[in-house]
Write a structure and sequence with these properties.
Elements (H helix, E strand, L loop, with lengths): L1 H41 L12 H6 L2 H6 L5 H7 L2 E3 L40 E5 L22 E5 L4 E4 L35
Antiparallel strand pairs: 1-2, 2-3, 3-4
Length: 200
């Protein structure tokens, strides 16, 4: 009888834990978005730009630029590391146009300064995304994008708002179109047309 009761309650407990985790992460990503705003206010509207040789490193370690400014302490840096800055915020948008993408992944290209004032549709542009989700059937979390069975995760938009959604929710036209060579077209992370493109 006890085993049956545990079997009935376990899925509900798991769902409640997952929802509380998402709620906590939503609050965290909103805090990170506020810090990005503060960084831009002190750096002529620049998105966090750390001293790295590649777009991938600059995007993954965006929080180091904030730490250098004293906006994050060591513990906060560890928490921020679960979020990724969109490559659109540190990469030339002209290289994210169909037919004009590089012949290798954009992660290996050199970063360029990108400014908040370049964002034409701030409420529709994803800026920070949570890297991982926890599907029930996998012991290891896949990336938030772009698995068919990925769970929802928090995303901070360029206007400072945040929401929870699946990567499919951020496809501007509802269709997943990407360049398999350059890896442009992934929702939020490497969307077409860079910082001026729409994520939802």
């Amino acid at each position: 009888m006890l085993l049956i009761l545990v079997g009935v309650l376990l899925p509900s407990v798991r769902r409640a834990w997952h929802q509380s985790r998402l709620t906590a992460l939503l609050g965290e990503i909103q805090q990170q978005a506020a810090l990005v705003e503060m960084y831009g206010n002190e750096h002529n509207d620049l998105y966090p730009f750390a001293a790295f040789d590649t777009v991938g490193a600059c995007s993954a370690k965006w929080y180091e630029a904030l730490a250098l400014e004293g906006l994050l302490d060591d513990r906060a840096v560890e928490r921020a590391s679960v979020f990724q800055l969109s490559l659109c915020m540190v990469y030339d948008a002209r290289r994210m146009e169909p037919g004009n993408t590089p012949d290798r992944t954009v992660w290996d290209e050199s970063p360029v300064p990108v400014y908040r004032r370049q964002t034409r549709l701030p409420a529709s542009k994803g800026m920070l995304a949570w890297l991982f989700t926890w599907p029930q059937r996998s012991p290891w979390p896949p990336r938030w994008c772009c698995f068919p069975d990925s769970s929802p995760g928090p995303v901070a938009m360029a206007d400072g708002s945040a929401m929870i959604g699946r990567w499919m929710d951020f496809l501007p036209d509802g269709e997943f179109v990407y360049d398999d060579v350059s890896h442009v077209g992934f929702p939020v992370i490497t969307t077409w047309y860079g910082v001026e493109g729409r994520d939802r």
